[in-house]
Fold this sequence. Notes:
The chain is 55% helix and 6% strand. The chain has helices spanning 15-27, 38-48, 64-71, 91-100, 112-139, 144-168, 175-190, 202-211, 224-227, 235-242, 244-259, 264-275, 296-310, 322-331, 339-347, 349-358; strands at 7-11, 31-35, 52-56, 82-86, 104-107. The radius of gyration is 22 Å and the shape is globular. It is built from 16 helices and five strands. The longest helix has 28 residues, at 112-139. By secondary structure, the chain is α/β, with parallel strands linked by helices. It has a five-stranded parallel sheet, with helices on both faces. It has two domains: 7-110, Response regulator (Rossmann fold, 3-Layer(aba) Sandwich); 167-358, Hypothetical protein af1432.
Amino acid sequence: MINQKPKILVADDDDINRSLLVKYLNSLGYCVSEEKTGKSTFEKIMKEKPDVILLDINMPEMDGFDILKVIKSNPDTRMIPVIIITGISDNQYYIKAIELGADDFLLKPFNIYLLKARLHSLVSMKMLYDINLKYQKKLKESNFELLNQLVKTQEVTIVALAKLAEFRDPETGGHLERIREYSKILAEEITKIDKYKKYINEKYISNIYKSAPLHDIGKVGIPDSILLKPGKLTKEEFEIMKGHSTIGGNAISSALKQIGIKTSFLDMAKFITYYHHERWDGEGYPFGLKGEDIPLSARVISLADVYDALTSKRIYKDAFSHGKAKTIIVSEAGKQFDPDIVDAFLKRENDFLMLKEVYKDKNNNQETVLL
């Protein structure tokens, strides 16, 4: 597959939209096929196993939801990425698509550069998954070198997945790099605390460094209208936004079951993704865990994530100074944050300042073009 053009299937009953999409995707170098009915789309998926599917919801004979439900429950097709393309602006449609296993959701008309970026990421993920499958088959013949290659491939997959989430929010900039570095130095510092000396070792620190970028992977399942909204979210929108923790955690849990290999850093990534918005006082989400019931790795990521959010510019706020962020974090010790981790932050705040400068954001302006 590496030497072949990625196969993209465009399924849309609108002849004009389908024709425009096919023409654009061909110009990007993909091998593009098209279908206009639900039944013919399903048959082609089962026969040709495309690398990515662009799927309309309303089609004759079999709608997009029916197709999605069947292919995501079939072991032979469930890992094929699906982007729902529709002109229906309804949160219930979006929620249903995500629950059925859609990997992304685009409203017509959409930004072709955004489509290009998401396709690139999903194709890369699919290729890595296919490579992983081939390695797993070879491992049955038992080759230690292949095992090392598999581990490296899985680590690359982690970065690819994390970058997919980052594509959704262009203002995150160096967030992934910063948060993994912040988390590493916090983990190093808390090894000096007696109760953690036997729990945290070099392997643990390596795992939290590798896992940290996945903390917000669930944001791939949040609509642009909410994720990129410049103003305050409504109560309903915030409830949808909060869902990124469980979307991400469920995705990693599903991947672990599919891979069938125990990997400590993916297990940690699952905990981080589920629990990084829990609070020390039990007032967080999604499960309302309290104190040390929250996994240590998630408590570390929680502080690192909040520090970076406070000190970074966003569409809805300017960046706070280190001093202001520090004051907020200290005030939340024993409330939002584990007091031990706040103490570790204070002991290593100079390192935070240095890393913030090394991985500072750069402006990245893009024009908007609609298709």
